[in-house]
Amino acid sequence: MSGAETQATAYGVLPLNTTEDVKAQQADVAVLPIGSFEQHGAFLPLVTDTVVACTIAREIAAAHPVLLLPPLTISCSHEHAAWPGTVSISAVTLYAVVRDIAESLRRSGISALILVNGHGGNYVLRNVVQESEGTGTRMALFPGTADWDAARARAGVQTSSHSDMHAGEVETSILLHAHPELVRPGYESADFLADERRHLLTLGMPAYTESGVIGSPSLASAVKGKELLAGLVDSFAEYVSVVAPDTPNARGTR
């Protein structure tokens, strides 16, 4: 069984490796999908960000020699708290959990960890990566802005990255491609733009949208979703080369 062999679930993917599989694989880099449990309008599930993160991670694991970890499914969604079903943990808790996972991996011999983040509100992950210097674990956060920009251009996404904030063209396209059974009718007429969101962190999403949508899901397609994922897989190769323990910039070798 390879490191990329997985089982589809409502969250997108769960690794099926045994201990012996991991030993045989000898991966130097672990990948941790991080999603959320928050509203995504009336047509996408609460687990959308987790499905997106898991889908990206699954594609990465199929193309690169990495150890795929199960996802963190609840994170920092406080700006969505007004909608029923949304569940959050504090940034302090998310920070601590990721740091603990990195330390556990290091003790087991894996000193590189890439966080595949599916939720834009997980701002603290940037700090986790920034502060990993000197901890013995080389970390990175993926996808970055440039990675998304390249993938969006490849897929022909029409909505700008700023306008396509939540439950819009990109997220809906990825689910239409990878998990169409999770997309309910209604996305075709759910477009809502709110480009002026200066006080989002203070006021939360309800100040800018009644439906929970900010973006243009009507422009989504499965073809765009497929190309988005392909573009992100291509971008990921650079991250592996940066964090892998045997690269010149790494903090030593195992």
Automatic annotation (TrEMBL):
GO terms for molecular function: hydrolase activity, acting on carbon-nitrogen (but not peptide) bonds, in linear amides; metal ion binding. The lineage of its organism: Bacteria, Bacillati, Actinomycetota, Actinomycetes, Kitasatosporales. InterPro entries: Creatininase-like_sf, Creatininase/forma_Hydrolase. This is Creatininase family protein. The keyword Hydrolase applies. Pfam families: Creatininase (PF02633). Belongs to the creatininase superfamily. Keywords: Hydrolase, Metal-binding, Zinc. Its cofactor is Zn(2+). GO terms for biological process: riboflavin biosynthetic process. PANTHER family: 2-AMINO-5-FORMYLAMINO-6-RIBOSYLAMINOPYRIMIDIN-4(3H)-ONE 5'-MONOPHOSPHATE DEFORMYLASE, 3-DEHYDRO-SCYLLO-INOSOSE HYDROLASE. The keyword Zinc applies. It comes from Streptomyces himalayensis subsp. aureolus.
